[in-house]
Amino acid sequence: MEITTILSPERTRCVAPGLSKKRALEMISELAASQCPELPQHELFESLMAREKMGSTGIGKGIALPHGRLGRIKHPIAVLLKCAQPIEFDAIDQQPVDLLFALFVPEQEHAQHLATLRTVAGKLSQKELCRALRKTEDNHHLYELVTQ
Question: Which NCBIfam families match (predicted)?
């Protein structure tokens, strides 16, 4: 699966400092809802929060993969945030997070969900890519880097 099939430039953002975990998840939900009007922002946010209640999606090294399942979507949708200042996220390594790659996946597509998470985690395990993502302040450049 190519990242370009789930992520768009409009859902890729470099964000200003001062975010909390909750505000970052709200922003992710807002960006997804703005591009997919059939998905209410509150449903997107609730799906992310429900998953976070089971345990943090902070996978370590400053990266989080928040995700939620929704019955209303037919294909995965992604949002990428690069925070100017790392935020507390209760990550497994107890380090703050500055790269959030969020996924919304169809509720019934469990295998696809796991495959998509593996693809994204593999991409973000590339140290050089993460270094470049963290250096950019331009939304379009952020998108270009992650989709190369």
Answer: nitro_reg_IIA
pTM > 0.70: yes
Is 43 buried (19+), middle (13-18) or exposed (0-12) by CB count in 10 A? middle
What one-character-per-residue DSSP string does 92-139 give?
TTS--EEEEEEEEEETT-HHHHHHHHHHHHHHHT-HHHHHHHHH---H
Letter for the amino acid at 41?
A: Q
Give the residue-averaged pLDDT of 98-122: 83
CATH number of the CATH domain containing 12: 3.40.930.10
State the total domains in the chain: 1
Q: How confident is the model at residue 110 (pLDDT cuts 50, 70, 90)?
A: low
CB 79 within 8 A of CB 26: no
CB 112 within 8 A of CB 120: no
Which of 67, 75, 113, 140 is catalytic? The answer is 67
67 is catalytic: yes
Cβ atoms of residues 85 and 18 within 8 Å: yes
Q: Residues 35-45: pLDDT tens digits?
A: 888 889 999 99
